[in-house]
Amino acid sequence: MAKKIVIIGAGPTGLGAAYRLRELGYDNWQLFEKNNYIGGLSASFKDEHGFTWDVGGHVMFSHYKYFDELVEKLLADEYLEHLRESWIWIMERFVPYPFQNNIRYLPQDVIWNCVLGLMEAQKDNTDPQNFKAWLYKIFGKGIADIFMLPQNKKTWAHPPEKMNKKWIAERVSIIDLKRILKNIILAQDDISWGPNNCFKFPLYGGTGGLFDKFMPYIERNLQLEKELTGIDIDKKVLQFADGKETAYDIVINTAPLDNLVSHISPRNEVLSAAAAKIEHNSGFIVGIGFKKPCPSNKCWMYFPQADSPFYRVTYFSNYSPNNVPGEEYYSLMCETSFSKYKQVDRNLIIEDTIQGLINSKLISEQDRGHIVSTYLLQRDHLYPIPSLKRDQALSVIQPYLMQHDIYSSGRFGAWLYEVGNMDHSVMQGVEVVDYLLQGKPEATWQMS
After folding, report:
1. Which residues lie below 8 Å from residue 372, measured CB to CB, with a gap of 6+?
2. pTM of the model
3. What is the pLDDT of residues 80-115, one digit of tens each?
């Protein structure tokens, strides 16, 4: 008889695994999701005023033919394509993204400090031992102090000196001094860097509009509102909050790795100690809906300055006209992170966000009168932190789990931010199934 495969979590990775099992004609599997909806951090929600909100800024771009074809199949022609228009608000002006390629927008004395820092950094032959040291080595003191350090502190809500540099890859545009100088002297913009300079977005339903399309392929094997509370690895039995149990042969876990380890019995002290070393941040997503035509064509913006709580704001109505109730409306989606290193008051976050939008000149004080909707989402696990202790901890956790037929994948299942994009996450689910059923290597996981 075919082994029973149980998938924990119906986010992008769990849905990718479930879809692949169905695609391969494998029938002995179940998918359990603790929420009453699918999509995980890629779900979307419509508020009572008709505004749609995502759980943070998501866009669809891909490194994989399989993912591209899957999106085409699921969405057909119900998507829009956008050229990225991304900016940084700093020193009372917008600077095009990536910042380091467009410092010509800054005051002349600041430009000089940035260039001087870059020139000095070229002489640095040291091997940086953490992310903060890497930022100084690569970008120099000027760019690091002005933008890179404050932006990353706001985004991660963790000290950069406690983070490793391994995750960077395509996430940060590396320095080309000649290119930067050319941009300054010729006064030209440089905005095309990065794999997401062109991206897709569902026409309906926000980002969740893509993942809702998985439902016909998985609903027969899906159970919602099934929160995992225990895993007996000796008996191979899962326990749930409703008191029910299910046996398994193999578990594909996509839930946060720290939570998973806490559910395992019998308890293993070495495993628990390793899990205690992995860190994450949490986040508030504040949606502000306006009854007013959208004043900008921008996609998203970064905010390194301290006069706003958020690290990123998206003109979410620009992604699809169906994200708002009608043509006379627009919406801003604002992301603020928090952690033990950076506290944020939930009771104040909506008002602080509105005031931050005013401070950043995205809206005026008079625009308060145009606000017709405010929406608040809180997520405990937002980003898995690439901390200095992460890799050593994972080298203990993952082999132990696999020895007990538990395969943990996805943004928080693998705890690897560097392969945590939407396409990476779906493909990790697809690839773990291919590994289990066909012995194929998990290429995405091995990229990290």
Report:
1. 49, 289, 290, 291, 329
2. 0.94
3. 998 888 999 999 999 999 898 899 999 999 999 999
Among the CATH numbers 3.20.20.70, 3.40.50.1970, 3.80.10.10, 3.90.660.10, which is that of 281-379? 3.90.660.10
Task: Give the Cα separation of 379 and 323 in Å (integer).
Answer: 21
Residue 19 token pair = 């879809």
Say yes or no to pLDDT of 203 above 80. Answer: yes
**Homologous superfamily of 5-43+63-80+203-279+388-447:** FAD/NAD(P)-binding domain (3.50.50.60)
| Amino acid identity, position 378 | Q
Residue 123 to residue 12: CA distance in whole angstroms: 43
Whole-number Å distance between alpha carbons of 387 and 278? 7
Q: Are 257 and 412 in contact (CB under 8 A)?
A: yes
pLDDT tens digits, residue range 254-292? 999 999 999 999 999 999 999 999 999 999 999 999 999
Q: How many CA atoms lie within 13 A of 320 on its CB side?
A: 23
Measured CA to CA, the distance from residue 444 to residue 419 in angstroms comes to: 7
